[in-house]
Amino acid sequence: MTKAPGDEPNEALTVTPPKKWAAGVPAVVHAMEYSLQETSPRNAGHTLLTMNQVGGIDCPGCAWADPAPGHRHRNEYCENGAKHINDEATTRRITADFFRTYSVAELGRRSDAWLNQQGRLTEPMVKRPGSDHYQPISWNDALGLLASELTSLDSPDEAVFYTSGRASNEAAFVLQLFARALGTNNLPDCSNLCHESSGYALHETLGTGKGTVSLDDLHHADLIFVVGQNPGSNHPRQLSALEQAKLNGARVIAVNPLPEAGLLRFKNPQTARGVIGQGVQIADRFLHIRNGGDLALFQGLNRLLLEAEDARPGQVLARDFIETDTKGFEEFAEHARTIDWNDILAATGLTREEIDQVRDEVLRSDRVIVCWAMGITQHKHAVPTVREIVNFLLLRGNVGRAGTGACPVRGHSNVQGDRTMGIWEQMPDEFLDALQEEFGFDPPRAHGLDSVNSIKAMREGRIKFFLALAGNFVRAAPDSAITEEAMRSCRMTAHISTKLNRSHTVCGETALILPTLGRTERDVQADGEQFVTVENSMSEVHTSHGRLQPASPLLLSEVAILCRLARRTLAEGTADIAWKRFEADYGVIRDSISRVVPGLHDFNRRVTRPGGIQLPNPVNEGVYHNDVGKALFTRNAWEMLHAPEGHLLLQTLRSHDQWNTVPYTSNDRYRGIHGSRRVVLVNPEDITGLGLAEGQRVDLVSVWEDNAERRAEGFRVVPYPTTRGCAAAYYPETNVLVPLESVADKSNQPTSKGIVVRLDPAPAPAPAAPQAETGRN
To answer: Which residues does residue 710 pair with via DSSP β-bridges, in sequence order?
Structure first.
């Protein structure tokens, strides 16, 4: 049960066997319980019955695609989506009295769940230098403080503008336009932390940073790989697509260090078989892989496919496609044949028989799709892994055809749209040239700072100003103590937010909270009621219309905050940008977007059609916008991540009852964890081998080359069917263990799925309120 807002979670840990299936009636019950604890039945009805419908509210949760208009269920949402949207629609409010009661220091000692449960922010607040309390401030004064700080910087590059996937396309476009008109490309975003590796690898090999798959493709594939993903908790509506694929005859191979309930069996609560029947078995084969072993797995499969072609020339590989549409095959094939099977088996933890069986599945399948998420992207060798997945798809021509392709699954509702709108520190010259033509100024060309490099620059004193458009940067970022130190070194930090989170408690010398409308709320501007747009994981752009009354009359929209800040900051004549018109009518923003962003021509008219706009994917037309103009085979070397004796490989993950950095409760019912999040899931044989016991309290200590000790204290050991030598624990509590310097090659993405740790026995705790992690000593 959700705690009252004044209470901290104080439940005893209980552990039950992991679930063998996901969703079903319990998912409906939990969704309704949480929704009605947060908001009124009337508001819940407005949000749930319009969510993901044509003309309704786009789910602010994950970026999974909606079925085509006419094929959507009346209740087109999942348990987590229902919780997420009504968490935003909560009737709880934070006022100035709250900030008079709680100092910043005291708020910093509270848990993430408690902060979230306090409700919606209702008016602008400021923490001034030397103070430990936020105080009310007018919008005029708040924007004046921000503009004064920005105009006093020695260089625009002393400012950083961070964006979360919760932002709309319109807000993201306005933010990047403001930053570039100011003179900087310092535009880190949450994609830097989750799917940057996918973007780098796909750009290099296929010429696009996005997936090549539609929902229809998934429904008609013969074989679908689900690699490094937990759809049951992170993208539950993906299970509906996989269910449909299974009913159409597809087979599914799950690749994961942990068995996940949703990939075992799915009971769709929208069908009779999901309510009173057994549901549908999703995974036909489960590969219990070692953390980080996916690159070796696909190299093994690719070697086996080459050998199958040797045995049956012209019958295995897509020779015509390889010759006409690809480059680098011979070099790739030469390298693939040298990969040692002993290395493959050691890296994956699988048997040769298991890999041979997967090869046989591939040979029987004409149409293959590979889906993946952060279990792939958050490793040092993440970019080579995605490139090897592309090699695998290219060998049998599984791109550019119906029922085939690469499917990186984004975990936040508009993170892909943010990138389309220009939120990237490395936007290509073509985009910047289009901005120049549209607005009459030359945007800066030097690459800016991503998320990891922004933290480094703040810590070194090179960044004075930090603005976040949504999100919870402090808790999303790695190396928590270093990140907090970096944020506190800024002269000014500001967050455009709907609810309170940890980042508001980690302040620069001056700190501002800028409360904004949520996606659920009506947005009325000078020219009338507005809608916004978002882009899902399958490159579909569609509208989102808020339905509820704003949580406070003092809230401004994201677009309004940014446009007013731009008008206050930039000198007259800086550029031909109609900030006032942008604020009054978001259609004016979309008109500019239509002339800047390829594929969004005639944006205002086309996006209002049912289903919105399908952005073009050149790969599906046989066009590859990379350096070689063809799909590129690559050679991918790797070094197996090794845990010394007495250590384990840790991956951080979300619980089921959590969205991104915010836990809703301390439960994870699919994994059988109840009442606590400070648990570490360990294979029973490893528990014995390490001399530990079930339920024992331990500190997690990460081992890194700088010899600094990063410690997360007070975790309970829980036996769990993880791969031998591997362990798992929840983030953001364990982000402290991820060194800032431990990043993926090329993409600079934190390696949160591959951390070497030891488990130190911990003393019994003295009675106290729950404590946050301690950082480094």
So the answer is: 702, 776
Tell me the CA end-to-end span of the chain in Å, nearest whole number: 36
Q: Which helix (H) or strand (E) holds 115?
A: helix 112-117
**211 neighbors 408 (Cβ within 8 angstroms):** yes
As its CATH architecture, domain 648-776 has Beta Barrel (2.40)
**Helical (H) or strand (E) element with 321:** helix 319-325
- Residue 170 one-letter amino acid: E
Q: Where are the beta strands (DSSP E) in 231-288?
A: 251-256, 265-267, 280-281, 285-288
H or E element at residue 473: helix 473-476
Q: How far is Cα 470 from Cα 164, in angstroms, rounded to an integer?
A: 5
Is the peptide bond preceding residue 129 cis, with omega within 30 degrees of 0? no
Question: Scanning the structure block, which residue is given the tokens 């019994």?
Answer: 764
Helix (H) or strand (E) holding 699: strand 697-702
What is the rounded distance in angstroms from the CA atom of residue 677 to the CA atom of residue 679?
6
Q: Identify the CATH class of 196-408.
A: alpha beta
C-beta neighbour count of 396 within 10 angstroms = 21
Cβ atoms of residues 441 and 147 within 8 Å? no
Amino acid at 444: P
Tens-digit pLDDT profile for residues 11-70: 789 999 999 999 989 889 888 988 999 999 988 888 999 999 999 999 888 889 999 999
Element spanning 540, H or E: strand 540-544
Helices of type H across 9-73:
25-38, 41-50
- Look at the pTM and tell me if it is higher than 0.85: yes
Is residue 254 helix, strand or coil? strand
**What DSSP designation does 723 have?**
P
Q: What is the CATH number of domain 93-194+414-597?
A: 3.40.50.740
Each residue's pLDDT tens digit, 475-527 = 999 999 999 999 999 999 999 999 999 999 999 999 999 999 999 999 999 99
**What are the structural domain ranges in the chain?**
14-88, 93-194+414-597, 196-408, 648-776
